[in-house]
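REVIEWER CHECKLIST
Item 1: Sequence provided? yes
Item 2: Single chain? yes
Item 3: Sequence as submitted:
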Amino acid sequence: MVSGLWTTSWIVLLIVGLITWGLIIWAVIVYRRRKGQTGLPVQLRYNMPIEIFYTIVPLILVLGFFAFTARDQAAIEAPYAEPDVEIQVMAKQWAWDFNYINEDVYSPGIQAQPELDGEPGAINEEELPTLVLPVDQKIEIALDSRDVIHSFWVIDFLYKKDMFPGKTNYMYVTPTREGTYKGKCAELCGEYHSLMLFNVEVVSQDEYDDYIQSLRDAGQEGQLGFEYDRNQNLPGTGAPELKEDH
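Item 4: Structure as written out by the authors:
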């Protein structure tokens, strides 16, 4: 759906661009100043049909883009009535924690690390935080931040969503192809924003079950909660009110 909206938009915009540039080039060639000509050419003013055309056509394009975008966004944002898997993603400077809510296990993540013996700037992929999802299952992803504004972006999912301190956002996805997909924070969030990377692995149900069991075997049972947040004094967090002594 997102691919269709993106592709169709580019096709329409390319057509508009070709027409616009074509008219500009045609006017430059046909109405250019010839040798021996002086003064200004005949001026065209208050041509009502052209003015209506220049107003109505862009309005139709803008309304059309808005209508199709609103339609697709409503479908993409529609919550699953009964999700098969519930995940909580906790963003932090500059890594990610993943809570597997149904299974009551968690996976903590660390900031991307450089390869010690690799090329300059090379990242050790094996140490990246990894979110594992079962294929062909309805996934509800709750998005929370421990400190500042982040943005959860799985590049191949063609969708991203901001994560605000004190507010939970949600994404709803059904991954249909197994594989490893790259993700990153898409909101400038501080000094090491560029190293706030992660992977998403879409696997079979059996592989997913094995992964969940590996978290249990590692003692990572339970959930990583908001007690680790840096913003403990934000309004609405239940923190005791600070009063000044006079």
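Item 5: Key structural point noted by reviewer: Residues 48-77 form the longest helix (30 residues).
Item 6: Recommendation: ____
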